[in-house]
Amino acid sequence: MNYFSFYKGGKVLYCLFFMGLVLSFSSSLARNYSRSFSLFFQHHKVQGVITDGITPLPGVTISVKGRTDTAAITDYSGNYVISASANDTLTVSFIGFKTKHIPVSGRSRIDIVLQFDITTLQEVRVNAGYYSVKESERTGSIARITSKDIENQPVTNVLATMQGRMAGVSISQDSGLPGGNFNIQIRGQNSLRSDGNAPLYVINGTPFSSEPIGSSQTSTFSPGLTSPLNSINPDDIESIEVLKDADATAIYGSRGANGVVLITTKKGKEGKTRFSINYSGGIGKVTKRLDLMKTPQYLQMRREAYNNDGFSMPPASAYDVNGVWNQNRNTDWQEVLIGGAADITNLQTTLSGGSSQTQFLLSGNYHKEGTVFPGDFVYNKGNFNFNINHSSNDKKFKINFNTAYTSQKNDQPWSDLTREAMTLAPNAPPLYDSDGNLNWSNGTFENPLRNFEAKFITKTGSLLANAFLSYEIMEGFELKSNFGFNDLNHAETRTFPSTIYNPSFNIGPASSALFLNNTQRQSWIIEPQINWKSRLNNFSLEVILGGTFQNQTTDKLVQRGLGFTSNNLIYDLASATSKIIYSNEEILYKYQAFFGRVNLNWKERYILNLTARRDGSSRFSPENQYANFGAVGFAWLFHKEPAFSNLFSFISFGKLRSSYGTTGSDQIGDYQFLNTYSSVSTNYQGLTGLQPSRLYNPNFGWEINKKFETALELGTLQDRIFLTAAYYQNRSSNQLVGIPLPGTTGFVSIQSNLDAVVQNSGFELTLRTENIKKDKLGWITNFNITVPRNKLISFPGLAGSTYANQYVIGQPLNIQKVYKYKNVNPQSGIYDFEDFNNDGIISAPADRSIVKNLSPKFFAGLQNQLNYKNFQLDFLFQLVEQDNWNWSNSQGVPGAGPNQAAALGNQWQKIGDISTYQKFTTGTNAQALDAYYKYSLSDAAISDASYIRLKNVSISYNLPNRFAGSMQLKIFMEAQNLLTFTKYQGADPEFKFTGYLPPLKVITTGIQLNF
C-alpha cells in the first residue's frame, strides 16, 4: 500500500516550481541584460555647444577616444554633432585650450567649456609675412592682436585698434573728425624727414600704400591729409601682426625699414552655413573742454588791457566791452559749437561655412558717423568682403581668393569751429537772429557758422583683391605664388562760396571758388615662391626662395575754379570764369626684389634664422637702384635642456633670442634724381612755359637702418605668468634729405644723402598673467611698457647748416629749442627771459637755447579680461608720460580779444607786484606783445602732458542656450576714450594740435546674433 506524502511530493513540486521560476527569471534577466548591453554599446547622436565660458568656439575638434573613424568640428556658433555610444569618452581639443576628456555616460547633449592653456598658445602659428612660425620658435620680434581684441572697439581706423596694446608701437590720433588720421611709429623715428617714417602695410599678402591721397589745396582743417587706411574695415580683420626687429622685417628689405604691419582678414571655416549680424549705435562727445573765462572775468581783463595801454575808454571797434554787445550775456561757446553728440551707427553681417575642401565667407558693413558740430555733417562708409578657400582631395593644391571693396563719402565743413569755441568772447551775440538767419549783428560780429557755407566733400572707392595658390610637388617641396591688385579712386572738393561773407559787403558769386583734387592709384604685385622643408632625426630645415615684382601708378589732378555766375553752379568747374591747374602729374613706381630664408632647427632647442633680400627701386638712378639687405636671428629654448628642467621645474618656458641685420628705405618720392620741369601758372604771349623744379643728382642711394635686438621670454606656473623683456638698438644712416643750396642756384635744396646717424633704442616689457582660471570664472591681465630713447648721434656740419636750429647732437629729433623764462619783471610788468649770449637783447636763435623733448618718455598699456558665466568684461588703460605745448602757446594775447583760460589770474597790475602773468595788453603795447610771443615759445609754454586714459571698455552678455536655442545672442556695450586722468593744461594730452577737434569719447551699445 502506497501512501502519498505531501511533504515528499511537495518538495519535488517545490523544486520544479523553483527551477521553473529561476529559469523564467533567468530568461527575462538575460533578455533585459542583452537589451541593456545592446543599448550600452549602441551608437547615438551626441550634440552640444563648445565655448570658452563666454564665446562660442568654432573649429574645435571632437573625437571619440580610441577610435580614428569618428570626429567632428564645431561650426561658427560652436555647435557640434557626433555619433558615440554610452560608454564612449569624447576627446575635445583646440589650439590655445586644454584638451578635455569627457565620458558620454548615456547623455545625448553635452555642453562643454574649454579652459585656456597658455602653454599651448606657444604652439600658435604667427604670421611672419612670407611664412608662418610657431610662437615658441620665432627668432624675431612680432607683436600680435586678434579679432577678439579688435571686435571690442567702436573704431573705424585699423590703427585705432592697436593703441596701447603693443610694446614698441606708438600710435596717436591726429583728428577727432570722422575718418580722421592717426600717426604711428614703430620703435621710434628713423628718418629726419617727417614723411619717411611710415611702416609697410600688407593686407593678405598685398602691399597697401599709406601715402596720403589728399591735397593741401583741398584738404579740410584737420591736420594731415586724407589717409587711404580708412578703407580697411576693422570688423573684417582676423589678426594684426607688427614686425619690429631686423630678423622679422629683413625679408621685406627696404620696405621694412620702419616696421611692417601685417593685416589678415577673416576666412571661411568648415561647418554648416552660418549667418551673423552685428548692430551697434551710440554717440561721440568731446573728451575735455578748457576752463575758460566767463563774461565778468573776461570783461575785467579787457578793460584792464585798455587801461594799461593808455585808453581812457574802449574804442568804437571794441564791441565786446564798449557796450555794443550785451555786457550781461554769457555763452559757453564750447558747448554751442563743439558740445554736440556725434551719432554713430554700425552694421556688420557675415555669411560663412563650407565643406572640408571648400570654405567661404561673405560679409558686408555699413558705418555712419556724424560730428559734434551744429549742422548735418555725415561720414558714410560701406564695405563688401568675399573670401573663398579650396583644396584638392589629396590636399596638394590649395587656392585662397579674397576681394574687398570699400566706398566712403565724407561731408564736412571746411573750417573747424574748435578754435572759435575756445577764443570767442563769452558775450558775443547769438548765432541766429529773430528770423532764424545767421546773425551778423550789424557788421560787428563774424559769425563762426558762416564757414559752414564752405563744404569739404570726399568720395573714395577702394578695391583690394588677392589670390594665393600653392601646389605640393612632393612631400616637403611646395610651389607658391601670390597675386595682388589694388585700385583706389579719390575725389576731393572744397568750396569757398561768397555766402561766407556778411551780406552787407555785397560780395557776389564772382568771388566764389572751387578746389578739386582727383587721385587715382593702381598697383599690382606678383610674388612667386619655392618652399622646401626637410627633417632628419633631431634636425629640421626650412628654405624659402622667392621674388617680388610690383608696379604702382598714381594720377593726380589738382585744380581751382574762380568766379561763378551763381553759387548753384559752384561744383561745375566749366562754369568758372578762370581756372588754374596746380598740379597734373602721373607717377610710375616700379619695385622688384629677390629674397631667401633659411631656418635651421636642432632638437627644437637651437634655432637659427638667416634672411637675405636684394631690392631694386625706380626711385634711384640706374647706378644706385639695387641694394642688399639681410639679417640673422638666433633663439635658444633653454627650458628644454634636461639639466635646466631638473633644476628649475617651475620654469615652464624659457627662450633667449637675438637678432641683427639691415633694412633700407626708399621713401623719398619719385623722380627725385632727375632734372624735372613743371608748367608755370601764368601765360606769356598766350603760351604756357616750363620752369625747372628739381636738379639732377644720380648719386644718392638707399637709407640704411641697422637693427639689433636681444630678448628673454620666460613662463612660469605652466605659463600662467609669461614675461617678455627686450632691448633694441636701431641706427639709421645715409639719411635721404634735401641738402640746402645757395640762393644763387635758384633752388632751395637738392635731394641727397646726408651723413647723419639717428639712433633709436629702448626697453620693451610684456607681461601676461592668468590670475584666475576656473570653469565659470576667469581673469587674464596683459601689460606692456616701452621706454624709448631717440638720439641724433652725428650730423657733420650741423652748426653751419639750416638744420642748426632744429636739431642738437645727442638729443632726440622731436625737440623744441625755446627761451628760458625767468619771471615777470616787478617794475615793468613784462616777461623776462634768460640772455644766454649777454648781448642785452633777447633774440633767436642765440637765446632759444633750452632744449625740450616732446617725445614720450614711456608709454604703456594695461588690459584686463574677466569672464563670469555668460558675462565678460574687457578694459584697457593707456599710459603715456610726456611733455607738450600747453594753452599758453596758442590761446592768443591776453587782453587782446580772444577768450582766455580761467586760470589766467594773478597778473601784474602795478609796480612792485610779484605775479605769475605779465600785464594785459590789447596788442598796442609792442614790448608786451613781443614778450608774449617769446613767452609762447619758452619753456613756460611747455608742461607735463602725461595721462592715464581708460582707452577701451567692453561689457557683454551671452544669452544662455536654453533661451536662445540654436541661435547665439550677445548684447554688449563698448566705449572708447571713456576717462582721462591728467594734469595737462590744455584740451587733450594725446592730441598735438591745439585749436583743432581732439579725439572723441565714444559709447555704443549693440546686439550680435549668430544663426
Helix content: under 10%
Task: Pick out the low-confidence regions.
Answer: 1-41
* Corresponding CATH architecture of the domain at 120-265: Beta Complex
| Major pleated sheet | 22 strands, antiparallel, barrel
Q: Tell me the structural class.
A: mainly beta
Give the rounded overall mean pLDDT: 88
- Count the E strands: 48
User: What is Rg?
Assistant: 35 Å
The CATH homology group name of the domain at 120-265: TonB-dependent receptor, plug domain
The number of distinct helices, counting runs of at least 4 residues, comes to 10
Please state roughly what percent of the residues sit in beta strands, choosing from under 5%, 5-15%, 15-25%, 25-35%, 35-45% or over 45%. over 45%
In whole angstroms, how far apart are the ends?
92 Å
- The CATH topology of the domain at 120-265 turns out to be Ferric Hydroxamate Uptake Protein, Chain A, domain 1
Query: What overall form do the CA principal axes indicate?
Result: globular
CATH class of the domain at 120-265: Mainly Beta
Structure description:
The protein has 1011 residues and is mainly beta. Among the domains are: 43-115, Sandwich (Immunoglobulin-like), CATH 2.60.40; 120-265, TonB-dependent receptor, plug domain (Ferric Hydroxamate Uptake Protein, Chain A, domain 1, Beta Complex). The chain contains 10 helices and 48 strands. It has a 22-stranded antiparallel β-barrel. Strands 10-15-16-13-14 form a 5-stranded mixed sheet. The protein has a 4-stranded antiparallel sheet with strand order 3-2-5-6, with no helix packed on it. Strand 20 and strand 21 (397-413) form a beta hairpin. The longest helix has 36 residues, at 6-41. The termini are far apart. The model is unreliable at 1-41 (pLDDT under 50).
